Amino acid sequence: MGKLIRKTYPLELSIGVLILIFGLSFFLSAQIFEVTFREILDGTPALFGMFLVSCAVLVMVLILWEEFLFPIRIRPSEKGVEFKNHRNKLRTQLLIYLAIPVIYVFVYIEYEVSIVRFLIGALINIAAPVVGRLSPGLKNYNDFLKLTNDAIVFKNNEKAAKLPLKMIQHITLVKDQRGVLHKLVVAMDGREVVIDIDEMELEAYYSAIDRFVTLHYPELVRIDNNNER
């Protein structure tokens, strides 16, 4: 079990939020099926369709709110620590994501719906997880940053390198206006290697990376809060 690095809400609160989202989406989905509140109370045949649409919304939320199912952890070893995009998480997200288009296809075939409202709801449900989590995760599927006592090793798309600590002159922590780390600039042998951790789907690890570099390489660290690299 690794060390949890990002706090999550208490389980009871998280479940309560999910129930609230499900309830709201259930009643809002009535607009897709063009049923009234009275028809809902009377047990309209569209109830199951509304339930399915609400489930699709819940799947979308669980993918976007990934800490609920996939708490962010790091697993340090004696040599150092590796930060990367968790592949098992991505595979699970892709698998449960498939439920969304399946639900909307079934609803479209089995129920009479308001086409415009149906398409708007389906588009939001289908596109949001792809844009928010799946596409960035797949793009950076193999990216990682490994920090050890001997070297800094990383891969960012087509750029990869192993930088021995004994050859590093200094490491600049490039932070944004909020003071959040987003790049490491490693100076060595008269050249600079820029590690774009903000392009590696590692935002959950920013604080942990900042802390590790500062504590383990204190003699090499410089801080740049105004760098526009």
Describe the fold and architecture.
- The protein is of the alpha+beta class.
- It has two domains: 137 residues, no CATH class; 81 residues, PH-domain like (Roll).
- The chain contains eight helices and ten strands.
- A four-stranded antiparallel sheet has the order 3-4-5-6, with helices on one face.
- Helix 1 crosses helix 4 and helix 4 packs parallel to helix 7.
- The protein starts with a strand and ends in a 5-residue tail after the last strand.
- The model has no long low-confidence stretch (mean pLDDT 90).
Based on the model shown, name its key terms.
single chain, alpha+beta, PH-domain like, 2 domains, four-stranded mixed sheet
DSSP E strands, number: 10
How many domains, as an integer? 2
Q: How many DSSP helices?
A: 8
Portion in helices: 40-55%
Question: Uncertain spans, ≥5 residues at pLDDT below 50?
Answer: none
Tell me the strand percentage band: 15-25%
- Helix-and-strand structural type: alpha+beta
Order of SSEs: EHHHHEEHHHEEEEEEHE
- Name the overall outline: elongated
Order of the strands making up the biggest sheet: 3-4-5-6
Please tell me how large the radius of gyration is: 23 Å
Instruction: Summarize the main sheet.
Output: 4 strands, antiparallel
Alpha-carbon distance between the two ends: 36 Å
Mean pLDDT score, rounded? 90
